[in-house]
Amino acid sequence: MQVSHFLKVYPYKEKPGYLLLFSTKRSSVIVIKEETFQAIEQGALSPEDEALLTKHGVIVPDQEKEKRDIRSLVDRKNAMNPVLNSMVVLNLDCNFACLYCYEGDMKGNLYMSDETAASLIDLIKKDFIGEKKKLLIDFYGGEPLLSLGLIKSISLELKGFAQEKGGSFNFTLVSNGALFKRQVAEELVPLGLERIKITLDGPAEVHNRYRPFKSGAGSFDTLIKNIKETCDLVKISIGGNFERNNCGQFVSLLDFLIKEGIKPDKIGGIKFDPVSKRPEGDVSPADYNDGCMSMDEPWLIKASEFLREEILKRSYNTPKITPIFCMVDNNSSFVVNFDGVIYKCPAFIGKEGFAVGNVRSGIDDYTRSYKLGLWKDHQECAECVYLPLCFGGCRYTTFIQKGNLDALECRKNYLDATLETFIKQEVKYR
Question: CA-CA distance, 334 to 342, in Å (whole number)?
Fold first, then answer.
């Protein structure tokens, strides 16, 4: 047996005589005696240790075969994926005036028509073939709850269809949360609502500056009230978008949530992310020009470690470090804009050259437009221990940086700087 190629080994000063291991392929975190690790190279493992370390991806029979297997991991995930997942942009309207609005100049009184919704339903029914067991819709906007009637009608139709086929139907919402009253939650949960993501950009004084209502009034108190009134009905995850100058203030938000009774047992999870910079020449009406362009920015590395620690320290759930399966690479996942045009990623909506079809004619081949498998042409990717956590990185970040998808967004520097800390956080708090 050999040590896995996709294994990170860290000294573990918190426990002298032990090492901290992390499998980037299995997401396994193991604290192991140094002498046990040395026994791997000496071929002196006990049968019990060999079985345990094999199970968790620490050792493999053949390291070269393991590398070859990772090259086909995306294909195997697609073959085994039981879920058909569609992100549906119901409108590009909104009741907020966010400072950094990602949709920028695309926003307006633009709503999905009943005819487009009917074509969407027909397309989903055609794609929900025998091997699929679950149908999942992510309703998105704009603000999806401005299209509440359409959410209900689409969900009612697809829930009945999926059940007839012996499968299941659920949906999620990505919402600013202002319209998510208890009555709305009570109407949507029976139709399949399983989770809603609501954004809180820090404590009230920060959030209200970045995410006010169109009237200019602050939205923070409304969102807190709605979260309190609905968290017993549906899983609520909280997101937040930070900048260099305000990331430290997000700790106050965490303490405020606890004080208000919105404790870890009431919330599905919390994750804070940096505001992304928009591509050159693609700005919002407010001409917002801040945000980060790279995961390698030193301030972002420090902020990511700090905020993740503060979330876990308070016992809130936050995503674990796991192999990535980007929706672009997922052949059972797509994004439908309000007008019926289909994309592979919401960040590319409206951008020339990235549409992959429409709900009336179906989905075209997008291998070249989204550069599928580009990482396979790079030897440094094939040899990288972080490959399962990256697979060439985020295409949108590449687009921001290069203006095209001809390059990769290598995350090696970021993971070199942060992964050990993240894994030690996992051991300490989970």
Answer: 7
DSSP letter, residue 10: E
Say if residue 113's pLDDT is above 80. Answer: yes
Counting every residue written for the chain, the total comes to 430
Q: What value does the mean pLDDT of the chain take?
A: 93
CA distances from 392 to 23, 82, 175, 374 (A): 18, 25, 29, 7
How far is the CA of 414 from the CAs of 294, 298, 419, in angstroms? 9, 9, 8
Residue 22 domain flag: yes
Rounded to a whole number of angstroms, the distance between the first and last alpha carbons of the chain is 30
For residue 15, which amino acid is it?
K
Q: Does residue 112 sit in the same domain as residue 214?
A: yes
The answer to whether the pTM exceeds 0.90 is yes
Supply the range of the domain harboring residue 125: 82-313
Q: Are residues 136 and 186 in the same domain?
A: yes
63 and 131: one domain? no
Distance between CA atoms of residues 419 and 411, nearest Å:
11
Q: Which residues contact 336 (CB under 8 A, 6 or more apart)?
A: 86, 87, 88, 89, 120, 342, 359
Give the single-character DSSP code of 76.
H
More confident residue, 283 or 347: 347
Question: How many domains does one find in the chain?
Answer: 2
Other beta carbons less than 10 A from residue 243's beta carbon: 20
Q: Tell me the C-alpha distance between 37 and 53, whole Å.
A: 10
pLDDT value of position 430: 85
